[in-house]
Amino acid sequence: MRKLLSLFILIGLILSFATVAFAEIKVPSQVGDIYVQDYANVLDSQDTQSLIQLGKKLEDSTTAQLAVLTIPSLEGNDIKEYANTAFRKYGLGNKEKNNGVLLLYSQKDREIRIEVGYGLEGVVTDIRSGAILDQSAIPYLKKGETSLALTNTYKALYNVILNGSEKTGHSKTSTLWDNLKIILIVVFVVIVIAIDMMFFNGVLTYFIINLLPALLNSSGGSRGGGGGSSGGGGSDRKF
C-alpha cells in the first residue's frame, strides 16, 4: 500500500513539473532599441523607424517608455500573463515612476493587448486603453493591415502618455532639468577652454577635439528598459 501511495505521489510530482515546464512563458530577448521588438515581422521598415523615433522622443520628454512587441504565437499562454512577463523582462519605464506601457501583438492567436505600469494607470486607464484598441487597432487588423494598426495604436498611446505627463508636470520638469544640464556643460567647457588657452596654449582643447568623434560613436548604443515593472492594468482584444 505504501509503495502504491509513493508511486502515485511520484507520478503526481512528475506531472506537476511537466505542467510547469509546459506553461513556462518564454519571452524573446531585446534586440536593438527597446521601443520596437518585431519578432512576427509584421511592421514595415519605415514604420519601425518612425516608432523608434517616437519612443525616444517620449522617453526624453517624460521618462516614460512605450514599447511594441510582436510575436508569432503565445504558445498556449494567456495574453495577459505573457504581457506581464514580457513587461517585467524588458523592465519598461523608469524604475521609480514605473511608467512603462507595452503593446503586445500575437499573430497566430489574433490577439492584442496594452499592458500598463502602475505609474501610468491613472493616465492610460483600462477604459481608455480598450477604446484605443477598438478605434486604432481592431478595424485595421480585421482588414489585414497589421503594420498600420500597430503604428496607429502606438501613436495614440504616445499622445495619451505625453498629454498625461504634461498635465502632471513630469514632462516640464524633465525638460527644464535637461536644459539646465546642457547649460552647465556648456559653461564648464567654456571655462576649460579658457584655462587651456591661457596656461597650456590649447593643447588640451586640441586633444578633446580629436577625441570627440570616438566618444560620440561609442555613445550610440541601443536603449534598454529603465527597470520598471507591470501593474497588470490594461486591455486586450481578439479579432
Overview of this structure, please?
Helix 4 (126-142) packs antiparallel against helix 5. The chain has helices at 2-23, 45-62, 79-90, 126-142, 146-168, 170-199, 203-218; strands spanning 36-38, 65-71, 100-106, 111-117, 230-238. The protein contains 7 helices and 5 strands, in the order αβαβαββααααβ. Residues 3-22 and 214-219 have low confidence and may be disordered. By secondary structure, the chain is α/β, with parallel strands linked by helices. Helix 3 (79-90) links the parallel strand 2 (65-71) and strand 3. The protein has a domain at 25-169 and 223-238: Diaminopimelate Epimerase, Chain A, domain 1 (Roll), CATH 3.10.310.50. The longest helix has 30 residues, at 170-199.
